[in-house]
Amino acid sequence: MRIGIVGTGHIGGTAAKLFAKAGHQVAVSNSRGPATLASLSSSIGPNAKATSVIEAVKFGEAVLLSLPYRKMDELPPAESFAGKIVIDAMNAYSGVGRVMDLGDSTSSEEVAKQMPAARLVKAFNTMGWNTLASGSRPAREERLVVFIAGDDASAKATVAKLIDEIGFASIDTGSLRDGGRRQQPGSPIYGRPMTVREAKKILG
Ligand SMILES: NC(=O)c1ccc[n+]([C@@H]2O[C@H](COP(=O)([O-])OP(=O)(O)OC[C@H]3O[C@@H](n4cnc5c(N)ncnc54)[C@H](OP(=O)(O)O)[C@@H]3O)[C@@H](O)[C@H]2O)c1
Fold first, then answer.
1. Domains of the chain: total
2. Which of 72, 193, 56, 50 lies closest to 134 in space, CA to CA?
3. Which residue of 102, 170, 171, 173 sits 20 to 30 Å from the alpha carbon of 200, by its own alpha carbon?
4. What is the pLDDT of residue 4?
5. Side-chain half-sphere of 145: how many Cα atoms within 13 Å?
6. Ligand 1: which atom is nearest the Cα of residue 67?
7. Atom 9 of ligand 1, residue of closest alpha carbon
8. Are the CB atoms for 89 and 80 separated by under 8 Å?
9. pLDDT tens string 112-139
């Protein structure tokens, strides 16, 4: 699959490596331009290339949003995401690391408002990048969970398959609104690695 990565830092860079290792093609991008990602991209290998943000979005059948949430307004226009599977890994932190007050809304609902024709899946939000980097396990072992949520069942199935291919288990927490809320900062599943068994116990 072709996967565009928008924001290639801790989470985006780690996911790019895992996706490429699993055989997918990745286009990595950041705010400073492709030249600043040349060495990362060549270290990943032939499955990776460094591009501009708009090129990464165009390239991807799926697009991972792994930039700071507060920079979301700098993303390309809504129509560039139309029909694409958009994986939202962003958590709503301010520049000083406080959880932003979104009122009755949640971060992924706000992303959905910005790109209404995208097939949005919330995923990779609750796991720290260092666990993502080191926690991949073969299917025969008890795997760590990457949670997903969203309103498009087929997009969620595709993202669940990607998660399986990179060595993690996925658990669907539900719709973008309710399932997304279960993954927000401060929730019981946020920020600590857990196996499927542990996660099911917590989620009930
Ligand atoms: N760190 C974690 O463990 C973790 C876990 C789960 C979810 N998340 C979420 O993942 C997102 C990224 O976190 P991170 O820790 O990976 O951050 P990070 O290491 O600071 O990386 C952020 C990346 O986003 C890029 N970026 C910034 N503004 C951009 C823009 N306007 N357009 C395109 N790219 C832009 C940065 O590029 P430049 O360097 O060129 O500006 C950088 O590549 C956040 O929303 C965070 O809440 C993080």
1. 1
2. 193
3. 102
4. 99
5. 24
6. 24
7. 90
8. no
9. 999 999 999 999 999 999 999 999 999 9
Q: Look at residue 52 in the predicted model and tell me its pLDDT.
A: 98
From ligand 1's centre to the CA of 66, what distance in Å?
A: 5
**Is 81 within 8 Å of 88 (Cβ atoms)?**
no
- Between the CA of 14 and the centroid of ligand 1 the distance, in Å, is 11
* Three-state SS sequence of the chain: CEEEEECCCHHHHHHHHHHHHCCCEEEEECCCCHHHHHHHHHHHCCCEEECCHHHHHHHCCEEEECCCHHHHHHCCCHHHHCCCEEEECCCCECCCCCECCCCCCCHHHHHHHHCCCCEEEEECCCCCHHHHHHCCCCCCCCCEEEEEEECCHHHHHHHHHHHHHCCCEEEECCCCCHHHHCCCCCCCCCCCCCEHHHHHHHHC
Q: Whose CA is nearest to atom 18 of ligand 1?
A: 9
Pocket of ligand 1 from Cβ distances under 6 Å: 6-12, 30-32, 53, 66-69, 71, 74, 89-91, 93, 124-125, 128-129
Q: Has this prediction a pTM greater than 0.85? A: yes
What's the CATH code of the domain at 143?
3.40.50.720
70 alpha carbon to ligand 1 midpoint, in Å? Answer: 10
**Atom 37 (ligand 1) nearest CA:** 30
The residue contributing the CA closest to ligand 1 atom 14 is 10
